[in-house]
Amino acid sequence: MKTLISLIAFLPTIALAEIEYSGSAAVEQRYFLQDALYPQQERANLSVYFAPELYTRFNDGNDSILFKGFYRFDQQDAERTHADIREFKWIHSGNEWQVQTGISKVFWGQTESLHLVDIINQTDGVESIDGEDKLGQPMVAFSLFKDWGNTTVFVLPYFRERTFSGNDGRLRPPIAIDTDNPIYESEDEEKNIDWAIRWQHTLGDWDVGLSYFDGTSRDPDFVLSTNELLEPSLRPFYPQIQQAGIDVLALMGGWTIKFEGIQRKVMEQDFTAFVGGFEYSFVGLFNSIYDVNWLMEYQYDDREDLTNVVAQNDLMLGTRLVFNDIDGTQILAGIVQDLDYSNVRAGFIEASSRINNHWKWRLDAWLFSSDEPAEPSYLLRRDDYVQFSLEYYF
């Protein structure tokens, strides 16, 4: 109620404030390199998205409102056609403190291949396979900025369910996921009040983050069931968890050391997972304008049930080529090798460059190799794809 009263008090000022409009839109063509496993699926898929942004400041810059919307239309998959409010928040800043109220996105983490500590926002699972696209999360966040570090406390009053591909979409399991009938451990279901706290500080060449989360897991398990047509289905199950996390980044000459680790309690069980490694930069390779970075990260998870664990004993090797041109051209390529199964691996390529001030092209590719049914990647063994995107920024 206090927040509403404060906003009403600022309404005359907001009405006079200048509103900045920006955003992006894109056409994306995805092509799968193999015939599909299931008859409903196609090899080619066209989609478009529109992501407008509005921003305004008032009260001498101490207050601001940010809106980021998102809508995608997908040619094949009705579940991938969706809309979301990525952010819609009021930010009030004081001396060494800040309050954010509304829908927001928060990213925690340092590593390239896996984001273990990043837990505030739910993954928008239909957007991409790397899990880096997130749904907007309702929250109230209070941040305190001091010499001894930045501390933020989050109250998360509403849970967002993960999105999954539908029957006509690729990159899905053989049994449809029933997103209309999720199961919660909490009796309050999606209205369970989650909370989190994070402290971040820079100590010389080291950036250190410590975090704790208590609430509904963003990673669902699955319960075999039947839908209203008595067909087999998988119902997402969201348990309550408590998770402590640490993330570290250190700059040492051309070396960048990265680490993320978590200890999570779920359903009376504890497990540990971490990912760590380095990125080494060759600046001006062979006296050229090009920079080449080499990356290596090891991924570990000690859970006994590895049904839904994609990184339990894996090694990522990659390279990033930065052209240092006016168009910002760069290419990131890598491979993730399962160290338990020699025939289980995934490769990826991400390349992008500006065409002019408004247009940009992007190329993404994922290649999967797996003949081990116990591995989650086995479900994707026929889903190698290349995607070309033409993006417009305004």
From TrEMBL:
Keywords: Signal. It comes from the Bacteria. Residues 1-17 form the signal peptide. This is Phosphate-selective porin O and P. It comes from Paraglaciecola psychrophila 170.
